[in-house]
Amino acid sequence: MQTAPSSTRDMDSIPVIDISPFIHRTNGSDTVVKAIEAACRETGFFLITGHGVSTEATAQLYNLARDFFDEPQDWKKKQGRGTSLKGGVAFSPIADEALSATLGIKTPGDYKESLNFGPRLPGDVWPTVPQGLQAAFSAYFAEMETLAGHLRRAFCQAIGLAPDYFEPAFVDHLSALRVINYPEQQESPLPGQLRAGVHTDYGFMTILRSEASPGGLQVRRRDGEWLDAPNVEGAYVVNIADAFMRWTNDEWLSTPHRVANPPGHFKGTTRRQSIPFFVNPSKETLIECLPPFAAKAPAKYTPITYGDYIALKTSQAFSKS
């Protein structure tokens, strides 16, 4: 099987990095780490191949989630709305969340719906339809935990920390797995409404399985221009999130991004489904400037626990005011 080179920069500055040399500790491992560090400093986004994630687990989750989203809206709105079950499922209907609010931008709710799961996060009883949905979420979650561990070790090497430096923060981590359905837009969106409004992610990093379709992920460059994220078969999009940027004293970037509406003139299908895995530390983890960055400049932020930080961000995103 052919793999991408360790780093390619022919896709409008978002690199594609084959991380298999780092995972397997073969020749080129150091090159992988250098490519990751450069991407984290320049754009905060990169794509990875050679990750080893099970294609079977990915397809199972994708297909079962799609079956759920194909159910009638009236039925879906009764699913996953409670919060009494740790490790249960949460369903967010269309326009329930407005991500731009986390940046102080008032917009209509985002034109998407989602299923959400985390072993330590509150949710509701899993639906009986489709069968196997809970097992599919759990299996894919385990795949993402393994991949996130590889990437954390690469980050540690890039920063100059011990390989397991971050691991205590992830013993009881609050990571979340979400499957998002961006349905066909049968009518024009409201003024200012996007599939997902401009935002930055809240936690440590995000690992995204996406697909090619009109109306996709866009990343804001430093000059303010919007860049379409490339789609590479089998690759994952990785981006640095807010808590990790604070840890690096803003040297590594948590970059604003959004999911655009499909062009109004497009005549084919515009339905899109993505699977982000939000890598988050434990509630008690203190987010404060890491020693290698503190040695170069004063810390920009007062230390804060991740629990307090995520509570603020979530309340903004789901605020109805």
Topology record:
Layout: E1 16-18, H1 20-24, H2 29-42, E2 45-49, H3 55-69, H4 73-76, E3 85-86, E4 89-92, E5 113-117, E6 122-123, H5 133-159, E7 176-182, E8 196-199, E9 205-209, E10 217-220, E11 226-228, E12 236-240, H6 242-247, E13 257-259, E14 272-279, E15 286-287, H7 291-294, E16 304-305, H8 306-317
Parallel strand pairs: 1-2
Antiparallel strand pairs: 2-12, 3-6, 4-5, 5-7, 7-14, 8-13, 9-12, 9-14, 10-11, 10-13, 15-16
Helix pairs in contact: 2-5, 3-5
What's a concise summary of this model?
Helices cover 27% and strands 20% of the residues.
| Radius of gyration from CA coordinates | 19 Å
* The CATH C-level class name: Mainly Beta
Number of helices: 8
Task: Work out the oligomeric state of the chains in this entry.
Answer: single chain
**Per CATH, which architecture?**
Sandwich
The strand order across the widest sheet is: 1-2-12-9-14-7-5-4
Question: How many structurally independent domains?
Answer: 1
Note the main sheet: 8 strands, mixed
Number of strands: 16
Q: Which residues form runs of ≥5 with pLDDT under 50? A: 1-11
Beta-strand percent range: 15-25%
CATH superfamily (homologous) name: B-lactam Antibiotic, Isopenicillin N Synthase, Chain
Query: Residue share in helices?
Result: 25-40%
**Would you tell me which CATH topology applies?**
Jelly Rolls
SSE class: alpha+beta
Assign an overall shape: globular
Distance between the termini: 52 Å
Order of helices and strands: EHHEHHEEEEHEEEEEEHEEEHEH
Average pLDDT metric: 90
